[in-house]
Design goal:
Chain A has about 525 residues and is mainly alpha-helical. Chain A has 16 helices and no strands. Classes of the chains: A mainly alpha (about 525), B alpha+beta (about 180). The complex binds protoporphyrin IX containing FE and copper (II) ion.
Chain lengths: ~525, ~180
């Protein structure tokens, strides 16, 4: 905030000399990056539990063969809503929350560049998910055609259909606004001596992610708009009878969809790239190569979309192109994994909760990367496609991948947010329970998929019974373990007070401000502190 | 707003908004691009949408089996069958086939058949001279109608293709009334 705006404030308005306004107004009208970050994180956790409850329903239904509960259509609604809520409501807002809190602190900026838009991009989200959740109570039920919304099936949704489309539009709007804010903040508001290549990895990966969001969220908006006009306004983008083609939807959707999966993993790469050096007490190995790797992943993510469509029918040259392009992504991804391991090599490592989650991330995300490579083999994918093998793949990259990185980040920065260390014992229990149960849940799904169990079905042949039962036990265990995290948050201010640095090996501007970080930080840009914060 | 005039971020914001607009437009641009791509290459089993003339000598040494498949879209209240399941043809010669559709309701209907050819590499070599799929088909209530297809298999058909499957899906056009 600059002094030029002060005179427009009324007497009781908040500016840099005062604390935050009291009560609900602080949150409703907030333009403060820390408050908005907090709201994003709480919103995300709420969605994580709502989506999680749906997952519990899914695994309860699948625990034994036969239909246990409601009708199959409801099961389909649950898989569809679970995915939409976890992707757009839990994972993405969690990373935006972390970005809001940490990017200004990491680059020495007083706030996000566009604080009022920041307020809007947050408050749109509860509206969007309110609408989406309300479809559960509509005639015809909630959307049940899968989160990928393929026509013509999705056009058979009942009254919920236009609400689904509208909710997706709002989520996209929120993401685009958030992304514009991140880019402008990073490009225009860095401390004077922070050159681009001196930026911390979390900020770097978010810059790349924000560009991805700006480039592909509008494509999704276009695709769902075409669905809407096909249904209500007589167009036939995807209706064969009118000269359209339903397969085209899949191309447009995955042109968005594959970059979208990298939107959910690049900031996770950033978080672990912050944590591993801290607890290894070593500089991040190959900082610049990390930047180039993340950029190449982002670029390649635009030219691999049809690996989701190998079975749809594609000429041989197309299959070969998409197969090799997909495999190419493994190269920069491998560079990242190598660099994390090299950072730990001969480091003085300690294993606090954030480090444990990061280590599990490196190991388990890589398993997801391997199954991804298997799926990328076009002839093999004909066997794997739409089976539980795919379910196992994307849950490995998203749960012990993205979600673990979010958890790691939350534990890592929590003392900076609250001013106190969280309860380390609870944190460790949370970590071990999560790690054990996530594997019990998802590892057997590889076997189910290889044995031919299709995804998105409420009932299955008895030969799949045992592994499904194990998977359900794991899922209930994982769900319960997450309640420990709530306990950690509830007791977050009951521990030992944290100093500014928080972690012995922590480096970066965010550790030079007090703990808890005051409402306003870096009102004057930090000078000549970047070099001092570098390792060595 | 005096503040927005001073906003130092304006240029960058407009640049980013331009990307947003461009991406939204790109999504729509994919539609014609995709159409053109499929039409040129025959990918996706697309066949010629209009009548064409082929003048090449028939290749009597080669026999190709043509299989007919019919599907009725779930919304369409029709019965729709090929009069023959299959026929054997020589490339370069003209053939006729007939399909029969029946409107199962008492109301008038307008239907549209959408063709697809497999294998994909045969799509551009399966040439329809005249086809009921070129136009909407009008049906009175309960009307039964025989519909003609006239085609030639282009002698340039790749060597390895000995069977071509021609598949029609029959749609009720009420849902896409404003088209065609
Ligand atoms: C080495 C990197 C990766 C490769 C080679 C890869 C490859 C693939 C392939 C080929 C499929 C399609 C499988 C099928 O439907 O038959 C797929 C599906 C999927 N992948 Fe990956 N993937 C990789 C990383 C990731 C990451 C990092 C994420 C997310 C964080 C991710 C999320 C997903 C999701 C959500 C699906 C399923 C989408 C659906 O059909 O609902 N993947 N992956
Ligand atoms: Cu993909």
């Amino acid at each position: 905030m600059t002094t030029t705006t002060v005179d427009s404030h009324t007497a009781d308005d908040a500016h840099e000399d005062h604390g935050p306004p009291k009560g609900i107004r602080r949150w409703l009208f907030s333009t403060n990056h820390k408050d908005i970050g907090t709201m994003y994180l709480i919103f995300s956790l709420t969605m994580f539990f709502i989506g999680g409850a749906m997952a519990m329903y899914i695994r309860a239904e699948l625990a034994i063969p036969g239909l246990q509960f409601r009708h199959p259509e409801f099961f389909n609604s649950m898989t569809t809503m679970h995915a939409l809520i976890m992707v757009f409501g839990a994972v993405m807002p969690a990373f935006v929350g972390l970005a809001n809190w940490m990017i200004p602190l990491q680059i020495g900026a007083p706030d996000m560049a566009l604080p009022r838009m920041n307020n809007w991009s947050f408050w749109i989200l509860p509206v969007a998910f309110g609408i989406l959740l309300s479809t559960l109570f509509m005639p015809g039920g909630a959307p049940a055609g899968g989160w990928t919304m393929y026509p013509p099936l999705i056009l058979q949704t009942g009254d919920a259909f236009p609400f689904l489309i509208f909710a997706v539009h709002l989520m996209g709007l929120s993401s685009i606004m958030g992304a514009i804010n991140v880019v402008v903040t990073i490009i225009n508001m860095r401390a004077p001596d922070m050159t681009l290549l001196k930026m911390p990895m979390f900020t770097w990966t978010w810059l790349i992610t924000a560009y991805l969001l700006i480039a592909v969220m509008p494509v999704l908006a276009g695709a769902v708009t075409m669905l809407l006009t096909d249904q209500f306004f007589g167009t036939s983008f995807f209706l064969a009878a009118g000269g359209g083609d339903p397969v085209m939807f899949q191309h447009i959707f995955w042109f968005f969809g594959h970059p979208e999966v990298y939107i959910m993993i690049l900031p996770a790469f950033g978080v672990v790239s912050e944590i591993i050096p801290t607890f290894s007490r070593k500089k991040l190995f190959g900082h610049d190569s990390m930047v180039y790797a993340a950029s190449s992943i982002a670029f390649l993510s635009f030219i691999v979309w049809a690996h989701h469509m190998f079975t749809v029918g594609m000429p041989l040259t197309g299959q070969l192109f998409f197969m090799f392009a997909t495999m190419l992504i493994a190269v920069p991804t491998g560079v990242k994994v190598f660099n994390w391991v090299a950072t730990m090599w001969r480091g003085a490592m300690t294993f606090e909760t954030p480090m444990l989650f990061s280590l599990a991330f490196v190991f388990l995300f890589t398993i997801g990367g391997f199954s991804g490579l298997m799926l990328a083999i076009a002839p093999a994918d004909v066997q794997y496609h739409d089976t539980y093998f795919v379910v196992a793949h994307f849950h490995y990259v998203l749960v012990p991948g993205s979600v673990f990185a979010i958890m790691a980040g939350a534990y890592y920065w929590l003392p900076k947010w609250t001013g106190y260390y969280y309860n380390e014992t609870l944190g460790k229990i949370h970590f071990w329970m999560s790690t054990i149960f996530v594997n019990v849940t998802f590892f057997p799904q590889h076997f189910l998929g290889l044995a031919g169990m299709p995804r998105r079905i409420p009932d299955y042949s008895v030969q799949f019974a045992d592994f499904n039962f194990i998977s359900s036990i794991g899922a209930f265990g994982f769900g319960l373990s997450q309640l420990i995290f709530v306990l950690v948050l509830l007791t977050a201010k009951k521990g030992v007070e944290a100093d500014d640095r928080v972690w012995e090996g922590a480096h970066g501007l965010e550790w030079t401000v007090p703990s808890p970080a005051p409402w306003h930080t870096f009102t004057t840009p930090p000078k000549n502190r970047i070099a001092a914060e570098a390792f060595e | 707003m005096s503040e927005s005039q001073k906003n130092p971020h304006r240029g960058l914001i407009f640049g980013l908004l331009a990307i947003v607009g461009g991406s939204f437009g790109f999504g729509y641009a994919l539609v014609p691009l995709y159409e053109v791509f499929c039409e040129i290459t025959g990918f996706g089993g697309r066949t010629n949408p209009e009548a064409v003339v082929v003048q090449e000598a028939p290749d009597l040494t080669r026999e190709i089996r043509i299989e007919f498949m019919t599907t009725v879209n779930s919304y369409a209240p029709f019965e729709f069958v090929a009069d023959r399941d299959s026929m054997t043809v020589n490339p370069g010669k003209m053939y006729f086939a007939t399909f029969t559709a029946t409107n199962m309701t008492d109301d008038g209907k307008i239907a549209q058949a959408v063709p697809s050819v497999a294998p994909m590499s045969a799509a551009e070599h399966f040439v329809k001279i005249e086809c009921f799929c070129f136009n909407n088909q009008e049906f009175a209530g309960n009307e039964e109608k025989a519909m003609p297809l006239q085609f030639i298999v282009d002698p340039d058909l790749p060597e390895y293709v000995d069977t071509i499957t021609l598949q029609y899906t029959f749609f009720d056009t009420e849902r896409v009334a404003s088209n065609n």
